[in-house]
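Appendix B, record 7
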Amino acid sequence: MQIKTSVVEFPTRMRPHIALATRDIDRSVEFYTQLFGQAPTKRRSDYAKFEVHEPPINLSLNLAPEVVEPRFPAHFGIQVKSTAEVLAARVRMMSAGHAVRDEEAVTCCYAVQDKVWITDPDGHPWEVFVVTEAESEVHSRAPADATQPVVASPCCAKP
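Structure tokens (predicted):
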């Protein structure tokens, strides 16, 4: 293989790429435009690509009308540095008409987190979260002051 340099610039040494099948490209583009706070960098009638610097990700959407609701992966997430950023994502997504589920001080994956959950038009769950305590003795626990019934988070659900 001949050594070549990328013609696409991005600020990190590497970034993850996720390709998702979608039944409705327009609805998915609207969802991800709100989630990432930017329009796609490439758009065709059956394809869209988001090259996002923050968080660094290359996400492509591919039209596949026959796709059924996903079973795996369990979910996707965007880790942020503060609860203010979680709340900003919440407001942005709710303002665009998306249902949002809040989790505050929830223990998940052996850490305490504040997060919001949003589901894209094809059923892919996304969390925007901040880790407020890095270590916990248990994998999953609802907050002690929970006033609503606890619904198991996709990160804690067993396949």
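Remarks on this record: The chain has one domain: 17-65+73-141. DSSP finds two helices and nine strands in the chain.
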